Amino acid sequence: MRAARRGTRPPPGRLVLLSAVFLAGVWAAVPAAAFSVRSEVDATRIGVEDQLQLTITIEGSDGPAVSLPPVENLRVAGGPFQSTQVSIVNGRMSQSRTWTWVLQPEAVGAARVGAVTAGDETAPAISIEVVAGSVRPSAPARRADPFATDPFGRDVFEDFFGRRRGRAAEPKVVIEAAPSRRELRVGEPLLLTYFLYTQVPVSDLQFTEAPQYAGFWVEELERPKAPPSGENATLGGERYRRFPVLRKLLFPTRAGTLTIPPSTMRIGIPAQGFFDDGGMVERQTKPVVVEVKPLPDEPGFSGAVGKFKTTATLDRSSVPLGEAALLRFRVEGTGNLKWIDRAPSPDVEGARVYPPQVKSDLETTPEGVRGSRTWEFVVVPETSGPLEIPPVPFSYFDPGAGRIVTARTEPLSLVVEGGTGAAGIPAPRSTAGSDGGVSLPLRADLDPEDRSIPVLGGRAVPAVAGLVLLGHVALWGAGRVRGFARRSGGRAAPTRSVRAALRDLERAERGGVSKEQAAVLIDRALHEAFGEVADDDDSDRARAVRGLLSDVHFVRYAPQLGDYSENLRSLVTRARGVVKRWA
């Protein structure tokens, strides 16, 4: 009738569900331990008119849920019915869950309940014999104790045999919701612990409905690794055994008087004697009232509450003009770190700073959320020479000091070297800037040609001189034509350059390359079609090209936070339109 196999496995990082109405993680204090799976039926020989009860039990706090195993010559007549038992006996906790099905035989002959698998553990299959008719005996009537009550309604009396009898005393069981503090600021952590006080063994703890925490941000706490054995406690002048059954870390989100409403728990009391059926009792916590003070309102306040420190670092000390450096701004400490969503805004003169990527390394403790959050900014210098990244401020409320504190990182230096570009992007042509540095013009020489000059013999010198003179005349005429074209808002590029630009745009549109490589292709296409665009050129063509290149650079250096395919397709479409219209 019973098949079982016992085993152990490491606990996963999840909480245990006590019942369908039990809040996820309610029995956070019950640790993962040894578990076993058991499959049993209430009879192995039944009639075709009878019904069979199949019960699968997982003993231990961390066993997985199970489903109906394969059955032969049986059909489901009812179920599954699920129940959970949490017992405290002799100061120790134990837990088990059961799934019950009612099965009906389909025909006379052999029947079978398949093996049950739970994690790495398996309960073997069970064979059943089905015979004609019905062979199940009628259920006997429950024996009652005729002397358990007094016909005259007295609480204490002597029965027929002279024994003193009395009505069963109400079990002494209390549920308490205990906050770690009653006054705090918005954003400060509050540890709320639900305690069970009992003088009797209990089983099957269930909240009738999930506790409510209006006005609070709720964080789950990791379960203790050691099994709770309880502790002696005094309540109302009486001695109890006290067990923590649930812990929540709460952060108030608004100021004022906040009330955590009462929670009701159903508690199973096992049978204490031959005539005692045990039963269920309900206990309710008292409401918890908390006074929450507002935070000071100051410009630049991040909303962080706790104790933090900040650091800023660069991934390199020097960078070639055209490449990017990575600025990491890190906040670490204990408090409400998950609330810090607003990134700092580093202002770096002479460089473009792109939106950051955020990385978190956090854990929830009874004292608050502990760990770090890091913002990674891509910094693209626009001029060569020394570049200074000023201190980055971060303001937070320090509960110990009772005021807002502003932490600042140390300034950082970055040397920008001219003459080489990023991988896949050529070195730009250098032009003197007003500050003596080197500005980054709007061009890219991606395919440098061989410009070496062959050595000529003496007879060829006059011919070359004539050609040079003609070349100067041609360049002078071409300059006049370009100036006219610029004033008219248009420019004609060589057909070969336009075709090369369109080919690069087609490659970028096909995909199969990273967003950085696609951005390089679009950048190269624009430079192939338009070359340099002067900063003082205010034509529609120049504005369109400059705006497009700015968007291309943004996509290229933006952190990889998602899919940029739509952005790239839009840039290719815009670039193709600009090339076809003005090149």
Characterization of this structure:
With 583 residues, the chain is α+β, with helices and mostly antiparallel strands. 16% of the residues lie in helices and 40% in strands. It contains five helices and 36 strands. Helix 2 (495-510) runs antiparallel to helix 3 and helix 3 runs antiparallel to helix 4 (540-557). It is flat. The relative contact order is 0.08.
Shape: flat
Mean pLDDT, all residues: 76
Estimated helix fraction: 10-25%
Strands, total number: 36
The largest pleated sheet is described as: 7 strands, mixed
Question: What is the beta-strand fraction?
Answer: 35-45%
**What is the subunit arrangement here?**
single chain
Q: Which structural class fits the helix and strand makeup?
A: alpha+beta
Distance between the termini: 87 Å
Compute the number of helices: 5
- Which value, in Å, is the CA radius of gyration? 39 Å
Unreliable runs: 1-33, 139-144, 420-458, 478-491
State the gist of this model.
The chain has 583 residues and is of the alpha+beta class.
Secondary structure elements and pairings:
Blueprint: E1 2-7, E2 35-41, E3 45-47, E4 52-59, E5 71-72, E6 74-89, E7 92-105, E8 109-113, E9 116-118, E10 121-123, E11 126-131, E12 156-158, E13 164-166, E14 173-179, E15 183-185, E16 190-198, E17 203-207, E18 216-220, E19 231-235, E20 238-252, E21 256-260, E22 264-269, E23 279-284, E24 288-293, E25 301-314, E26 318-320, E27 325-335, E28 351-353, E29 357-365, E30 368-381, E31 385-389, E32 393-398, E33 403-408, E34 412-417, E35 431-432, E36 438-439, H1 460-487, H2 495-510, H3 515-530, H4 540-557, H5 565-582
Parallel strand pairs: 3-11, 15-24, 25-32, 26-34
Antiparallel strand pairs: 1-2, 2-4, 4-7, 5-8, 6-7, 8-11, 9-10, 12-13, 14-16, 16-20, 17-22, 18-20, 19-20, 21-24, 22-23, 25-27, 27-30, 28-30, 29-30, 31-34, 32-33, 35-36
